[in-house]
Amino acid sequence: MSAAEYLLKEIERAEEFLVVGKGVRRIDALDKVTGRARFVEDFEFKDTLYVRLVKSPIPHGRILSVKPEKALELGPVWVFTAADIPGENQVGYALPDQPLLAEGKVRFVGEPVALVASPDPDLSERAAELVEVEYEELPAIFDPLEAMERTDVLVHEERGTNIAETTRVRKGDVEKGFEESDVVVENTYRTGHQEHACMETEAAVAIPDTQGGVTVIASIQYPHLCQRITARVLGIPHSMVRVVQPYVGGGFGGKDDMGPLVSAMAALVAKKTNRPAMLVYTREDSFTSTCKRDPAVIWYKSGATADGKLKAIEVKIVLDAGAYANRGPYVLWRATMHAGGPYEIPNAKVDGFLVYTNKVFEGSFRGFGNPQVQFAAESQMDELAEKLGMDPLEIRLKNLLRPGSRTITDQLLESSVGIYEAVKLLGEKSGFREKWQKYREQKSGRVRRGIGIACGYHGISTSRGVPDWSNATIILSRDGSVVVETGICEIGQGSWTAHAQIAAEVLGAPVEFVKVKGGTSDAPDTGATHASRGSSIGGIGVYMAAKKIRERLNEVAARLLGCSPDEVEIRDGKAYVRGNPENYIEWEELVDAAYRMGYEMSATGYFFLPKGTFDMERGLGYAYPAFSYIANVAEVEVDLETGKVRVLRVWPALAAGKILNPVLVEGQVEGAIVQGMGYCLCEELKFDDGKILNPNFTDYLLPTALDVPEVEKPIYVEDLYEYGPFGAKGVGEMALIPTPAAIINAVKNATGVRV
Fold it and tell me: What burial class does residue 178 get, using C-beta atoms within 10 Å of its C-beta: 0-12 exposed, 13-18 middle, 19+ buried?
């Protein structure tokens, strides 16, 4: 039986699932609530050196000299610069444009220039302040729109332009589409930086071994990428670098980008000194020297007919990359491909530009370019509705994607498209139409209420046609216990719990028998824990490995029970002939028998995701294997005198395939809504000549527990995905994506003003 056939068979029995679809307790819950969970700083080794950064105080300049003498006079102190890197001083992700330590020149305030190490962390701090770096200051540029047009000030002279990357979509005939439109809306939208604000800052401890290699324990999201980049910097084979992820105090994408850099820095010190080295970013370092959400300027033109059908969009997206491209080309690509929102639009012209400036570099952040562009797209939908005299729900229902629809890249969506049903149910549950009409008629009172809706969709898997795969190993011990090995990291999202559920469901084992070992370079390379792929795509490999072992167990049970393997049922630790559960074999007895009969009780599961062709020149074709869909309704209260906005209540609706664990999903949705709320209402990095003025939690305002709105139980439309484990798609990023637009649309409903 093929994997697809097995999956369909299991989906048909969905009402009989043992643990899939159930609120199974997180497998890491007790460790976290009892304090047993160990984070990077909990790993202490004898003779550890504590590492600090020497950072650039200027946004742009040539490095003339680095003088460590005063620092070295303090005592046992080591100072390392780019000249000390034994391998390649290159950590650029999409483009080879970023050094680990600045070499030749600096390009933003806060860029690491040198590393200082000492056995005393306070001594390291003092020594870092005494390292003298002489610079020749260069003109700097901070506005991406200005940087696009100028060549006299270049962040990277070798490129001859400040434009790092361009993207495009060309579908249909946009001019004709606007000619056929009865209304046209045109606006410019701006979104700012967002700080990841993880409770745990970026951190790594590296331990040298006796064979010239190194083990790194780091706060990361992709152990095999950390392994590759650390090996590149040290100039040694990948196999000589071992990476282990302990518990991680939040990631949100940033530790996918920064984990390899911090790992390589700690490993460099460990390799050069032959002593353990620990680097933990201060909170200020985390603000000044790590990637952020890309600020965007989006010009958006939309056209629709009198009955509300979308005819054309024309969009120009400019992302501020900061000093280095990092993941920016992929962020831009995703923003471009999602620029139309989850709607069927026959004519689309989208141009994207990633632009270098002399500010801190940008990178991965939950939503990955999509919150910026959906903010614009969903604001446009409300503006079109207003011009047409429609309510915002009606215009969305007229245009939402359905099975058989085509995206703006002309990708045919043959199945797994549940957004229309989700939005319809959401409108009914929230009472949207009645409230929207009532609130827009308010004429008095200092405090006004409003309600807004916004939709979003998100391609599951990596961007830009990058190959994507899933890989896992499962080992059954003779006592019936199960070990799942995966490269997927647990960063708070619950993927390891979902993987345990998948393994238990397929094997028929009690879920408490399953242990997940993940986040290490010793495990199979499962790709990064990003792009909402941890439980979904990461879980496919677990599913495939478990399926192989399940088929062997069926054969064993059939021999013991005197039946055909197809008649065997293994559920909740018992094997029996289907229809006769009274006559059963205990799970432990079954596994022991498999060993005695000579069956292999370990398996590797591998699956390479099918991805169709894509025309990069026209921006048309198969962009993603599947999409998850989300819609949020937000109800707000606006003080007309102070401008203060309170989010009172949010109703989410999700079409993300099979919901593997509704409790985990509720946590993801609630957290994403609050993070999106902060992005919209209070989080703002302030700059002066490229320097961040508020690199702390006193002046960078985050939502607190008192700001959290009432979040209703999500509506689930389980639009099953044929290649997902039990039909699951991704969830982690979804609820953040439309939240800012839903809030702003609610503010418009309350005040009559578009912000």
Answer: middle
